Automatic annotation (TrEMBL):
Pfam families: HNH. SMART domains: HNHc. Coiled coil: none annotated. Gene3D superfamilies: 1.10.30.50. Residues 23-74 form the HNH nuclease domain. InterPro entries: HNH, HNH_nuc, NA-targeting_endonuclease, RNA-guided_IscB-like. This is HNH nuclease domain-containing protein.
C-alpha cells in the first residue's frame, strides 16, 4: 500500500519491476470503475492519465492517477484540471473527491489476506500467493487469451514458462443450488396453504440427478443424457442439451451423478484445432 501511495519510495526491487506497472494499472482500473473519468465512456481502450500533468510537476502517486479515453486525454494534454473542466464543475468536484479517496479499504483487505496466508501456512500444506497484476502479467507475457480458467492457470510465481493448453477443454462447474428453499406456499395473508415439502425421491431418483436413459422401444426410442425431473407415477422428464424429453419411464434411466447443487459442462478450448 505504501508503494502504491508513494511510488517514489526507493530501495525496493519489486517497485522497480515490470510487474509494479501491472499492479498499479489494475488498481486504477478498479478505483475508477473502468471508465473515462472525464466523459464516462466504457468498454473502450483507456489510458492512465495524470490529473496534475507530469510536465507541470505531477507525480505517479495513486492519488494523481485516473483513467481517460484517447479523446479526453489528448484534449486535456498538459492543462490544469481546473482549466480543463471549468465548464463542468460537477465532474471536477467528483474527480477531486475520488482521487483523494484513502487506501484504507485496500489496506484492510491486504492485511486480511496475509493473516489468511499465515493460517494456511500453519497447516503445513504448500501455499502460494499472487495478485491480479501478477496473473495478468503471466497471461499476457505468454500471449494467452483472457478466460477464467486460463487466469486460474496463471496465478502465482510458480506458473511455468510454457503452458500446454492446445485442445484443452475445461470442465465448467456452475452452482445451481438445490431449488427453492421455500418450505411451503403461503396464502395472501402469509399463512401456509400447503404442507412442508422435502427432498422427494421416486424409484431412487431425485429431481436434478444426472441420468442416462436408454429407451429401447416406442416413439421415444433413443439415448438421452441430462437432468431428470421425477414424477410420482414413475414417468420422468429429462432435460438434455437438445431440449426436454417428457414421459421417460424410470426403468430406462441409469444414474450418472446425484444432484449436488452444481452443473457440469465442457467449456471451449482456448486454441481450438484448425479444421
Amino acid at each position: 500500500m505504501q508503494l502504491m501511495e508513494n511510488p517514489e519510495v526507493k530501495g525496493v526491487e519489486y517497485q522497480q519491476g515490470t510487474l509494479q506497472g501491472y499492479e498499479v494499472r489494475e488498481y486504477v482500473l478498479e478505483k475508477w470503475n473502468r471508465q473515462c473519468a472525464y466523459c464516462g465512456a466504457k468498454d473502450i481502450p483507456l489510458q492512465i492519465e495524470h490529473i496534475h500533468p507530469r510536465a507541470n510537476g505531477g507525480t505517479n502517486r495513486i492519488s494523481n492517477l485516473t483513467l481517460a479515453c484517447d479523446k479526453c486525454n489528448k484534449a486535456k494534454g498538459i492543462k490544469d484540471i481546473k482549466d480543463f473542466l471549468k465548464k463542468n464543475p460537477e465532474v471536477l468536484k467528483r474527480i477531486q473527491a475520488q482521487a483523494k479517496a484513502p487506501l484504507k479499504d485496500a489496506a484492510a483487505v491486504n492485511a486480511s489476506r496475509w493473516a489468511l496466508f499465515e493460517r494456511l501456512k500453519a497447516t503445513g500444506l504448500p501455499v502460494e500467493v499472487g495478485s491480479g497484476g501478477l496473473t495478468k502479467f503471466n497471461r499476457t507475457s505468454r500471449e494467452l487469451p483472457k478466460t477464467h480458467w486460463l487466469d486460474a492457470a496463471n496465478v502465482g510465481t510458480s506458473t511455468p514458462d510454457t503452458l500446454l493448453i492446445k485442445d484443452v477443454r475445461p470442465l465448467v462447474i456452475k452452482a445451481t443450488g438445490h431449488g427453492n428453499r421455500q418450505m411451503c406456499l403461503p396464502d395472501r395473508y402469509g399463512f401456509p396453504r400447503t404442507s412442508a415439502k422435502g427432498a422427494k425421491k421416486v424409484k431412487g431418483f431425485q429431481t436434478g440427478d444426472m441420468v442416462k436413459a436408454l429407451v429401447t422401444k416406442g416413439k421415444k426410442g433413443g439415448t438421452y443424457v441430462g437432468r431428470v425431473a421425477v414424477r410420482a407415477r414413475g414417468s420422468f422428464n429429462i432435460t438434455t442439451i437438445q431440449g426436454t424429453i417428457q414421459g421417460i419411464g424410470y426403468h430406462y434411466c441409469h444414474m450418472i451423478h446425484h444432484c449436488d447443487g452444481y452443473s457440469y459442462t465442457k467449456g471451449d478450448a482456448a486454441f481450438p484445432p484448425v479444421a
